[in-house]
Amino acid sequence: MRASRLLWIASVALAALLLPSLASADGITWTLNGVTFSDGATASGSFNYDASSNSYSSIDVTTGAGTVFPSTLYTTTSVEFFSNNFLLGLGPTSVPSDLTGVTLLGLYFTNALTNTGGTDPVYLVEFYCGNSNCSDLNTRYSLPGSVTGTPVSTPEPGSLLFLASGLLACFLFRPRA
Question: Where are the domains positioned within the chain?
Answer without folding.
Answer: 2-19+156-172, 29-151
